[in-house]
């Protein structure tokens, strides 16, 4: 099937073999729908909604997306360990980055922010939320939810103090990318990167992610609950934890929100 070239980002028609897709007009959250559908799915499936009424973000935050923005969830039955499942968030961030570059061109000023945001011109363009059915060694299904502000970004006043400026692709560049086209590009890109991880492990994912990382080598702050750690951002380890080097030496931080000075 060929999508008509309605956007000024390149239209994408190919779709990875063995992967299903469901497109829904309106749903509470594609991640919630993924959890409901997972028991009946026979293989990897992308669920995309044209509108979400109760989109969810990381750490219990809400995620708003009007029609025209991208909201989709990939449901997988992960074969590896729970740690491998967590590493798929880096695969997803790389896939979003590369799909947008492929559609919009190499000059699109994209970067990745740990753990898995995609930035455009330094503002937050896309977020990723991993949720699972089952836990530990018994993960039955993994939902990788991806939201991209293609046409509109939330008002900064609706966000928590210190949150990165939200941006949209259209607002920053004037480019129009259709959610259906991005879904195809993203599904292909995710397929490529997840094969890399299956065949060669996390090392190539880690290096590709670091090559696209924002503020590598800069001083940043990681906040987990009431605990704040400030230090030099020295990369990620082989579990995907953030490496910060500060007055207390080198620390690996498995989960946090990070803040850049001056944003
Ligand atoms: O807080 C974040 O940065 C993560 C946002 C993830 C939003 C996406 S939109 C598609 C999927 N469905 C949801 O309810 N959330 C994710």
TrEMBL record:
CDD domains to which the protein is assigned, alphabetical: BPL (cd16442)
Reactions catalysed, as given in the entry: biotin + L-lysyl-[protein] + ATP = N(6)-biotinyl-L-lysyl-[protein] + AMP + diphosphate + H(+)
EC number: 6.3.4.15
Broad EC category: ligase
UniProt entry keywords in alphabetical sequence: Biotin, Ligase
Pfam families (alphabetical): BPL_C, BPL_LplA_LipB
Domain annotation BPL/LPL catalytic: ranges: 6-198
Top-level taxonomic group: Bacteria
GO molecular function: biotin--[biotin carboxyl-carrier protein] ligase activity
Statement: the UniProt record of this protein carries the keyword Ligase: yes
PANTHER family in the record: BIOTIN PROTEIN LIGASE (PTHR12835), BIOTIN--PROTEIN LIGASE (PTHR12835:SF5)
Protein known as: biotin--[biotin carboxyl-carrier protein] ligase
Biological source species: Paracoccus sediminis
């Amino acid at each position: 099937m060929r999508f008509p070239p309605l956007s000024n980002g390149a239209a994408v028609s190919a779709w990875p073999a063995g992967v299903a897709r469901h497109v829904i007009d309106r749903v509470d959250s594609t991640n919630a729908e993924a959890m409901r559908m997972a028991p009946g799915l026979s293989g990897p499936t992308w669920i995309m909604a044209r509108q979400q009424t109760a989109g969810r973000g990381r750490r219990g935050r809400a995620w708003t997306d009007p029609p025209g923005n991208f909201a989709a969830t990939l449901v997988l039955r992960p074969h590896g360990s729970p740690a491998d499942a967590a590493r798929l968030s880096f695969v997803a961030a790389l896939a979003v980055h590369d799909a947008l570059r492929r559609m919009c061109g190499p000059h699109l000023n994209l970067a990745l922010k740990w753990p898995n945001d995609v930035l455009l011109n330094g503002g937050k363009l896309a977020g990723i939320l991993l949720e699972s059915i089952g836990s530990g060694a018994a993960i039955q299904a993994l939902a990788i939810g991806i939201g991209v502000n293609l046409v509109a970004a939330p008002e900064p006043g609706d966000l928590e103090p210190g949150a990165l400026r939200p941006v949209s692709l259209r607002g920053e560049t004037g480019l129009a990318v259709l959610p259906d086209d991005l879904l195809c590009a993203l599904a292909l890109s995710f397929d490529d990167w997840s094969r890399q991880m299956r065949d060669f492990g996390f090392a190539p994912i880690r290096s590709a992610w670091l090559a696209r990382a924002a503020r590598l080598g800069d001083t940043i702050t990681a906040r987990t609950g009431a605990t704040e750690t400030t230090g030099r951002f020295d990369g990620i380890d082989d579990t995907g934890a953030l490496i910060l080097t500060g007055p207390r030496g080198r620390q690996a931080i498995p989960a946090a929100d990070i803040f850049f000075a001056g944003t």
